[in-house]
């Protein structure tokens, strides 16, 4: 039986060093943190992880580092998103050889591609990936995948899940209903941490989100409280997540989330480009405030950083 994504997955930030290289030692440290916090999966080479800024060798090095540090204790599902079909397939094949559990693929981006192009592109990746595929619906960053095309792809035997990052809970409910009606047995994970609790009421199996590497304890609180039927506790934890992401979004994506990661004790550069040192200094000045918000929200729930 193929794996299906479930629980709390971290969309991982990619740590860069002062020379703009992928800091594989920090990537390993982040992965060990995820294991310690009982995070179920790691989505490396991600959107928040700035895959657009990485070449193929850097992506491979990051995948290797996460797999090494994970030691099989969490699922590793690298992103293979690209606008070059051959590179998406090549990275999926590399991920399989390296020992990943699945890969994540989004629709091609930048140009307003016709739906037929999007469907054909994604189908090629799905059929040529030698390991399970998680579809990534992220219309805020890529071409939107229309519902009929998404369902067609979900019916493929190599597809095991959807990272649903539309941010539209109505769409999530529509997707869950359609999957049930068509008897398509895959797992859906919300891609917005603010929508974990409402997503669970729709039938999703968890989340794949940036805060999986920032406040995994709070996300676990939501999931565990919901499963236990404690909606008061689940709601309180969901409100705490929103309070944290409100602060991170004031700084901007993905850098606010990278500051959130730094607030948990990691040490890496926000920008790959060394010429951004002045801007880096300006943003890092916000770190004490970010750390204080995270600490306060966790304390409100009786949790410790």
UniProtKB/TrEMBL annotation:
SUPFAM superfamilies documented for this protein:
Aldolase
In the record, the note on similarity to other proteins reads:
Belongs to the DapA family.
Per the UniProt record, the lineage of the source organism begins with:
Bacteria, Bacillati, Bacillota, Clostridia, Christensenellales
What species is this protein from? Answer: Luoshenia tenuis
Q: Which residues form the active site?
A: 136 (proton donor/acceptor), 163 (schiff-base intermediate with substrate)
Q: Which InterPro entries match?
A: Aldolase_TIM, DapA-like, Schiff_base-form_aldolases_AS
Question: What keywords sit in the KW lines?
Answer: Lyase, Schiff base
- Cellular component annotations (GO), alphabetically ordered: cytosol
Q: Report which superkingdom the organism of origin falls in.
A: Bacteria
Any single biological process term in GO: N-acetylneuraminate catabolic process
A Pfam family (short name) is DHDPS
UniProt name for this protein: Dihydrodipicolinate synthase family protein
Any one GO MF term held by the record is: N-acetylneuraminate lyase activity
């Amino acid at each position: 039986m193929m794996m299906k994504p479930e629980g709390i997955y971290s969309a991982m930030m990619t740590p860069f060093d002062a020379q703009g290289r992928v800091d594989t030692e920090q990537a390993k440290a982040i992965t060990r943190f995820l294991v310690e916090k009982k995070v179920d999966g790691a989505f490396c080479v991600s959107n928040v992880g700035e895959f657009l800024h990485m070449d193929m060798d850097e992506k491979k090095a990051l995948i290797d580092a996460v797999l090494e540090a994970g030691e099989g204790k969490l699922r590793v599902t690298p992103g293979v998103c690209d606008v070059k079909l051959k590179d998406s397939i090549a990275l999926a094949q590399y991920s399989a050889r390296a020992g990943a559990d699945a890969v994540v693929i989004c629709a091609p981006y930048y140009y307003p591609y016709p739906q037929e192009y999007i469907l054909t592109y994604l189908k090629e990746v799905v059929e040529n990936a030698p390991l399970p595929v998680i579809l990534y619906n992220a219309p805020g960053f890529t071409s939107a995948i229309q519902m009929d095309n998404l369902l067609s792809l979900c019916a493929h035997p190599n597809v095991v899940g959807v990272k649903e990052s539309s941010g539209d809970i109505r769409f999530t409910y529509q997707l869950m209903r359609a999957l049930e009606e068509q008897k398509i047995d895959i797992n859906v994970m919300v891609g917005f941490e603010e929508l974990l609790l409402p997503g669970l009421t729709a039938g999703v199996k968890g989340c794949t989100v940036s805060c999986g590497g920032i406040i995994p304890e709070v996300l676990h609180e939501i999931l565990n409280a919901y499963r236990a039927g404690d909606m008061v506790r689940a709601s309180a934890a969901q409100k705490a997540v929103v309070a944290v992401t409100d602060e991170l979004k004031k700084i901007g994506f993905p850098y606010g989330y990278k500051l959130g990661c730094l607030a948990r004790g990691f040490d890496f550069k926000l920008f790959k480009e060394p010429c951004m040192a002045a801007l880096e200094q300006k943003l890092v000045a916000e770190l004490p405030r970010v750390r204080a918000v995270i600490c306060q929200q966790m304390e409100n729930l009786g949790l410790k950083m």
